[in-house]
């Protein structure tokens, strides 16, 4: 299936005029007034733990307790793993009807810095497992709510958390106003270049903040595939192998010891060949210079724990620097049961197309495939580099000032992604120039933080009662 040629929710060949978009934005306020975004409707049948446990049925059984253990660490780690319960909650709220390509899981830990194909350090959304078209405010609400939940975990007082929430929501709204006034091509080429940002503010940043920013950028550049190879592999009898560290990293030879390993690798190379065919010709030529030699299962993230994620060790034909790719299972988006199924039959393709739509620059190795090991049903996967200048902000160390700054970065970035994929002029018209939307989001964020703490406690009760199990410290 070819990539979408129109904005999510827009019929092919239709392009509203600026005046029509402005009118559509104002009309949307009739169905969903700005102040209504503060509301979180109640539902007596709500069962967030049941939704989470329902997801466990499609996950690797021995990894389910790891997922629960990670979610129980704090209210924020619970929030990270609870995209499905929040989708169910958002489905009960008033909708603007203004559709964009949603990230689907736009919490503050799913933003970060990574290397662009031009070898520049950029800041962007970096997780698209749940991407799907839908109302723009779903992403913004999840982002601002994550600020409130993480702020509580970091000990921020109520007033300071509200300042962070307002900064995040305001950054989204004002950025969307700016994008609405820009030519379409300028919107498409906009991006948050970390090095440019540091240089731009060099004269006004305090020396300590400048040194910290430069050190973080330097650190990000060291977190590449070469570093990953050094950390995750070793050479035994002249052959490079992936290090075993169960249950977090388990070579396939240990997982499938009862199978014919040569046949297993033949099947995996088949999925790799199919993945390569989804790449543009120039990148296909590059990947074909590498040969798959080793595979291991790797536990990743919080919400993703229990889905299949594989490290693929690729050896180059020149014998110099190996490459580590990650093949990650792609299930239907948690948003699908509320917003409709994806137009893409392969869920890996859904993820890749959503990522390419929303990111200013995407991994050159990004592609998708479908495969199955003997005795298993077919699974969809997307493939990318395991690490490419990746850097994530240490959220647990953010104070109110740094969290507000980070919130502005995330708000601007999310607005830019939405402006690329939806009607930016209609959204800007809907949001308006006042802070009504920002204030409503700040109220919603605190209400949802209260709800998250209750849900976190409910999962702990489910573990204590034996309804499910959790493995701590993994």
Describe this structure in words.
With 474 residues, this protein is an alpha+beta fold. The chain has 2 domains: 18-221 and 397-464, no CATH class; 224-385, no CATH class. The chain contains 19 helices and 13 strands. It has helices at 18-31, 48-56, 64-71, 75-81, 83-90, 136-153, 158-181, 184-189, 194-200, 207-222, 225-232, 252-255, 261-276, 281-287, 336-339, 347-358, 400-421, 424-431, 436-464, and strands at residues 99-102, 111-115, 121-125, 132-135, 192-193, 233-236, 239-242, 249-251, 290-298, 309-316, 323-329, 367-371, 379-385. The strands form 4 sheets. The protein has a 6-stranded antiparallel beta sheet, with helices on both faces. The chain has a 3-stranded antiparallel beta sheet with strand order 2-3-5. A hairpin with a 6-residue loop joins β10 (309-316) and β11 (323-329). α4 packs across α19. The longest helix has 29 residues, at 436-464. Mean pLDDT is 88; it is low at 1-6.
Strand and helix layout:
Elements: H1 18-31, H2 48-56, H3 64-71, H4 75-81, H5 83-90, E1 99-102, E2 111-115, E3 121-125, E4 132-135, H6 136-153, H7 158-181, H8 184-189, E5 192-193, H9 194-200, H10 207-222, H11 225-232, E6 233-236, E7 239-242, E8 249-251, H12 252-255, H13 261-276, H14 281-287, E9 290-298, E10 309-316, E11 323-329, H15 336-339, H16 347-358, E12 367-371, E13 379-385, H17 400-421, H18 424-431, H19 436-464
Antiparallel strand pairs: 1-4, 2-3, 3-5, 6-7, 8-9, 9-10, 10-11, 11-13, 12-13
Helix pairs in contact: 1-18, 3-4, 4-6, 4-19, 6-7, 6-17, 6-19, 7-17, 7-18, 7-19
């Amino acid at each position: 299936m070819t990539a979408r040629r129109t904005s999510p929710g827009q019929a092919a060949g239709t392009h509203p005029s600026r005046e029509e978009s402005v009118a559509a934005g104002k009309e949307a306020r009739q169905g969903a007034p700005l102040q209504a975004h503060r509301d979180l409707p109640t539902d007596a049948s709500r069962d967030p733990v049941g939704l989470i446990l329902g997801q466990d049925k499609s996950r690797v059984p021995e990894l389910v307790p790891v997922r629960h253990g990670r979610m129980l660490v704090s209210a924020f780690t619970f929030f990270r793993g609870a995209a499905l319960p929040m989708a169910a909650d958002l489905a009960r709220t008033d909708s603007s009807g203004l559709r964009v390509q949603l990230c689907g899981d736009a919490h503050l830990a799913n933003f970060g810095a990574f290397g662009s194909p031009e070898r520049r350090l950029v800041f962007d959304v970096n997780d698209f497992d749940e991407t799907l078209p839908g109302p723009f405010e779903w992403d913004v609400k999840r982002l601002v709510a994550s600020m409130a939940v993480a702020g509580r975990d970091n000990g921020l007082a109520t007033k300071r958390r509200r300042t962070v929430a307002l900064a995040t929501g305001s950054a989204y709204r004002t950025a969307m106003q700016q994008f609405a006034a820009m030519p379409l091509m300028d919107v498409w080429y906009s991006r948050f270049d970390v090095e440019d940002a540091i240089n731009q503010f060099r004269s006004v940043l305090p020396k300590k903040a400048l040194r910290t920013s430069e050190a973080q950028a330097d650190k990000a550049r060291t977190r590449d595939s070469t570093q990953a190879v050094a950390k995750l592999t070793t050479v035994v009898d002249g052959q490079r192998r992936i290090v075993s560290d169960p249950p977090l990293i388990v070579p396939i030879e240990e997982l499938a010891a009862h199978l014919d390993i040569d046949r297993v690798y033949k099947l995996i190379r088949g999925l790799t060949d199919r993945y390569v065919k989804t790449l543009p010709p120039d990148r296909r030529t590059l990947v074909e210079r590498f040969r798959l030699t080793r595979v291991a299962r790797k536990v990743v993230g919080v919400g993703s724990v229990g889905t299949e994620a594989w490290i693929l060790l690729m050896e180059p034909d020149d014998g110099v620097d190996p490459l580590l790719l990650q093949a990650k299972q792609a299930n239907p988006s948690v948003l699908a049961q509320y917003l409709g199924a994806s137009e893409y039959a392969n869920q890996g393709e859904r993820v890749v197309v959503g990522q390419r739509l929303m990111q200013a620059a995407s991994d050159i190795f990004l592609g998708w495939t479908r495969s199955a090991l003997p005795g298993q049903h077919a699974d969809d996967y997307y493939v990318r580099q395991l690490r490419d200048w990746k850097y994530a902000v240490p959220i647990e160390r953010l104070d109110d000032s740094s969290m507000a700054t980070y919130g502005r970065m995330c708000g601007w970035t999310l607005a830019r992604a939405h402006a690329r994929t939806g009607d930016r002029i209609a959204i800007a018209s809907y949001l308006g120039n006042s802070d009504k939307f920002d204030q409503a989001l700040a109220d919603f964020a605190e209400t949802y933080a209260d709800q998250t703490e209750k849900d976190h406690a409910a999962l702990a009760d489910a573990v204590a009662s034996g309804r499910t199990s959790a493995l701590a410290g993994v």
